[in-house]
Amino acid sequence: VQLQASGGGLVQTGGSLRLSCAASGHIVRSSTMTWFRQAPGKEREFVACNFRNTNTYYADSVKGRFTMSRDNAKNQVYLQMNSLKPEDTAVYYCALSNRVILSTIRAPGQYGYWGQGTLVTVSS
User: Fold this and answer.
1) If the chain, 124 residues long, is cut into consecutive pieces of 10 residues, what is the mean pLDDT of each piece?
2) Residues 117, 44: contact at Cβ < 8 Å?
3) Contacts of residue 51, Cβ cutoff 8 Å, sequence gap at least 6
4) Per-residue pLDDT, 95
5) 3-state DSSP call for residue 3?
6) Which of 28, 44, 83, 113 could form a disulfide with 96 if both were Cys (CB 3.0 to 4.6 A apart)?
7) If you write DSSP's letter for every residue of 11-74 in order, what string do you get?
């Protein structure tokens, strides 16, 4: 499995960006796809998850501003980010797991496949 994230960039506070993650290889419809982010000097943190192609879950910090979607025909997931804040600045990673359970979707260690990351910078 290979994941390729794209769409990052520089945006002003209040602006929007749309991230994409293309998956290739052994992808099954029940794969769990998740977005994480990592700011400089901080731990990698959970952002949003499409769990086994059913429900989508969000971190409290992005709920109402970010929307994750999935296109199974293209094996892609997206993260629409609106009302961006300086604290959203981070490298954003997409990750995939075929084994993660719902109670652990927020744990980076549960994911075996990762994209290379795409940098989002929100200026104040």
Assistant:
1) 97 98 88 97 98 97 98 95 98 96 97 97 96
2) no
3) 32, 57, 100, 102, 105
4) 98
5) strand
6) 113
7) EETT--EEEEEEEESS--TT-EEEEEEE-TTS--EEEEEE-TTS-EEE-TTTTTTEEEEEETTT
